[in-house]
Amino acid sequence: MIPVLMPVYARSDVAPVRGEGCYLFDADGRKWLDFASGIAVNCLGHGHPHFTERLKAQVETLIHVSNLYGSPQQESVARRLVELTFADTVFFTNSGAEAIECAVKTCRRFHFVAGRPEKYRILTFSNAFHGRTLTAIAATDQAKLRDGFDPLPDWFRVLPFDDLSAVEAALDGSIGGIMVEPIQGEGGVRPASPAFLKGLRQLCDAHGLLLILDEVQCGVGRTGTLFAHEQYGITPDIMAIAKGIGGGVPVGACLATERAASGMGVGTHGSTYGGNPLAMAACHAVLDIVAEPAFLATVKARAARLRSELEQMIGNHPIFAGVRGMGLMLGLKMTTDSRAFVSHLRTHGLLAVAAAENVVRLLPPLIIDENHIRECVEKLSAAAADYRVPEAA
Ligand code: PLP
Fold first, then answer.
1. Please, are residues 286 and 244 in contact by the beta-carbon 8 Å criterion?
2. Residue 342's CATH number
3. How high is the pLDDT of residue 390?
4. Looking at residue 285, what is its pLDDT?
5. From CA 189, how far away is CA 293, in angstroms rounded?
6. Residue nearest atom 10 in ligand 1 by C-alpha distance
7. How many structural domains is the chain composed of?
8. What is the reported pLDDT for 392?
9. Would you name the residues annotated as active-site residues?
10. What confidence category does residue 22 fall into, taking pLDDT thresholds of 50, 70 and 90?
């Protein structure tokens, strides 16, 4: 008999009912150090007082109105994002995949209203993850995401990641934009090289294409700057964000320059829930804390500490091959199946997330302190010491 929850997830036996700071607890009082953060979502951890207070106040005032009405709440968050970034305009969504959808539509309309409808394709990269909608799975070559969904639209051409010459060779009259994660998350915590992102920016400028960055996972302070691209010295034309911006309330956003959004007039896009007052209160609460330069400096310092402790620790355990990533988006490359090891970590009271290329992803709340770092590294080390590689792996 089919379970009441459509069985699309291989759920673990961790069933949290309460969170406190960087910890999760189940109904029996079992406790985990949460270095998964709901996959890079709970940037302020669990039950952060400022976040909780702003949400409570909003729940008591107004939760939802339609986008048929004016939204002072959306305008104030959008103004903040515009002030903090390259963008001139923002569309709010409820998820990362919807932010990607808006980004792709914005690119399509940009060329359409300029009389270039033939430029409907976007270049994307191998192992990319942009979400689970049909558009998002059409934008990747990951077979496990696409399996059973052919035929998919031919709106994307997928090229090797970090290979600028492949991009140059693929440019033809059908290409209208390039979409890339500055740091591939699901794809194995792989940062793009600075030369690659800078090169993409230059190619876009030279050929009249739009550069779309997917910062759904790496954005909102995760790498120690508000957005990862700041560390690459480039700006996009369009950016999709989600996850951390809502701190746990489902929010996403598509940010764009005025030029890139030139085709997004009345009726071209919409969302019933997108940007409702509750979601906007969550964004304000997150930005109140994460956008502060002192907070971001602390994220950078904690990230450097975690990375150096991990680098020391892995030398003692041959199942680890290296540390990769940026800021508090770190990956432990393993010489064995990372999924099996991530489930073993749960028995040691540590939550992490597996990624492609046998990588264990560490995505702690951005509020971690030195004690959480020490506890994480101790748990990883203890788990590695008593790990027996499964025979099937
Ligand atoms: N883009 C990236 C880089 C992601 O990591 C994800 C989710 O993991 C998405 C898009 C899709 O976001 P959502 O699951 O909120 O639709």
1. yes
2. 3.90.1150.10
3. 84
4. 98
5. 25
6. 130
7. 2
8. 63
9. 129, 214, 243
10. very high
